[in-house]
Amino acid sequence: MAQPPTDAGHAIAVSDLRMRYGDKDVLKGVDFTIEAGGVTALLGPNGAGKTTTIEILEGFRSRSAGSVEVLGADPEHGGERWKARMGIVLQEWRDNGKWRVRDLVAHFGDYYRPYAEPWGADELLDVVGLATQAKQRVQRLSGGQRRRLDVALGIIGRPALLFLDEPTTGFDPHARREFHELIHRLTDLEGTTILLTTHDLDEAEKLAERILILAGGRIIADGSPDQLARAAATTAEVKWMQDGRLQVHATDDATAFARKLLATDEGAVTDLEIRRASLEEAYMTLVEQFEAGEAEAAVDKFLSKLWLASFAKKEATK
Amino acid sequence: MNPAVNAYKTGWRRALIETRISLATPSEVVGIVFPLALAVTVLLFLRGVDVDDSPVSLGSMNMPSLIGMMIVWGGALGVLSTMLLDRTNGTMLRAKSMPGGMTGYLVGKLGMTALVTAFNVVVLLVVGLVFFDGVEFGSPDRWLLFLAVLALGLVATIPLGAVLGALFDNPSSMALVMMPFMGLVAISGIFYPVTALPEWLQVIGQVFPTYWTGLGMRHALLPDSAVAVEIGGDWRTLTMFIVLAAWAVASLAFAPKLLSRMARRESGSTMTARREKMQQNWG
Predict the structure, then answer these.
(1) Contact criterion met (CB < 8 Å) for A81 and B3
(2) What ipTM score was computed for the predicted complex, to two decimals?
(3) DSSP characters over B76-99
(4) CA distance B10 to chain A (A)
């Protein structure tokens, strides 16, 4: 049961990843690395290429160009031993509906035996909160229960890396919260590296230590939820009335701007208002514009709001 | 344990579990029993219909033919329909995501199909032996022949089903395959002696396995004098084994390459696309 070292080096290293369907470029040079351990969220509007990216990492899909390394191997030539160290939870899975929950978990564990000691079925069902459903048929599970079973099957071989693609799509708030708690439990368990995709900023902030925002075929922001929030808040919007007209100005230094404005207005400025931008607002605008088909403009506007120094430098050199 | 051995063993356990599930799920049992019961009922009424040159009634002659047909349908179409369904609901993709999962999946599904088909064949056999005059094992070597036709028939048709399953990826292609299969049954001497057909249709019928499994089962289960109805008045035992073996070899030769190509192409988004297409087709 020799378990290759997983702590050394990157869990995932992606460089200049490109994907083209017909004449449409979905990924136009994606770069990122993820170290072993922790939860990373790949956040982006629907249709931004999150699923494409994650499928390339999983080895389900061939890329057009670029280099990708997952757990030390190219996913296109991963092999069974490599596969044994990964867990995959897809957006929607309705497989093996006639099996009973416990039978399925116990049986699927057997595939991993040559590589690692899989979870015991009862223990694992306990972890994901399905102990009382053990004897039920899989097709009778609710949506939330089904997804928790998918997670159980994803982690059954004690993977070094777990992929979750839009894990809470279609959940009610209660099922969502239970699922978030499960993910927190998983990260406490054995230091599995988790990469999840989501279009929901709130979910990314709750679950992930690091957020990568994918839009327009590139990673356009990268940082901890806190870093991104602070970066977004650097810009402020100043509004006031002057000569009966509404004036709006965006600035990085609202205090200095306001001081100067009031010093020279000769009492004409009224209704002065300063609002710090939030990450949420910036992201919402991004999603709206993206869905309206203005991907490039959406990215530009988002970046102008999100003044992440390191990132701006990188964009400037392009 | 050696990973490959583990995958095969786990796959075999899957075959046993899924056979049990299949035989214990009322909806699946009804799905299998209903069409068979319908066919058998028709044959029961044909027990009074005589066939020229034949020592047994049309009903009794058709009973072994039906068993022969069951091998091909259960084998080839059984695997095909399972694979089409499993590519839509994610069962196959799940297998792809696990180490040795694809091997285990195929061993499991092919094994399950063989077991379930063999079970159905045995049920039909018992019905034939009990209710149809002239349907019996004339000598011990006929038992052997019965088992040999069953075994070779399954080995020929199950990989054939897997080849079809690898080529077609949409549940609506089931109809595309069903139609020619129905046509083949009509020219394979299952429900009437094939000698009643024009010669060129006889030739086409004899290319495919259904004619030969039917012939083999008639040989195993009918009195010797029933051979008078067959082409050339001969059971052509050697030819039967050669044709079925040729189908087995051909399917087994193509299956691995096609199946690995299929596995390579399988992904979450192709599955979603397939499902959306299916929903559009069904309104």
Answers:
(1) yes
(2) 0.87
(3) IIHHHHHHHHHHHHSHHHHHHTST
(4) 7
